[in-house]
Amino acid sequence: MSTIIEFKNVEKIYKSGEHVLKALDNVNFSINRGEFVVILGPSGAGKSTLLNLLGGLDSVSSGEIIVDGKHIESFNDNQLTEYRAKNVGFIFQFYNLIPNLTAEENINLMEDVVNVKIDGLDILDSVGLKEHANNFPAQLSGGEQQRVSIARAISKQPTMLLCDEPT
Length: 167
What we know:
Blueprint: E1 3-16, E2 19-32, H1 47-54, E3 62-67, E4 70-71, H2 77-87, E5 88-91, H3 103-108, H4 110-114, H5 120-126, H6 142-155, E6 160-163
Parallel strand pairs: 5-6
Antiparallel strand pairs: 1-2, 1-3, 3-4
Helix pairs in contact: 5-6
């Protein structure tokens, strides 16, 4: 198997006035293509920070993040936008559904991100929610909202799925 993700000496430090929080401290690991990886730890251990760095939503304080041979820690804003659009499907802890869009519209929104035709109804059917296509997030249960979030993440067929507390 070939390595697709590598973290080398990654640190993420947050500063607020004189307060310094080291969310990640010298993190090193690699993931091979096709592997399924679970990151476990207590609240505040840096799991979401790690996912945000890997997903290009945040930047490292120091270290290297290499994805498929590319150093994403050195990407500019346009490169990060393209990286996220083509490679990353996010399933956020709090779903991040757009409240004034229906379930189907929340999925079809990905067409603007990847410039590919997406069949929101078909994807909703794959997660058992086709009959809720015209419902707004507030009209769905928490579990249904999470399934819409999953459907949205997989709709663009990303290289990797980053799931922050997906249960």
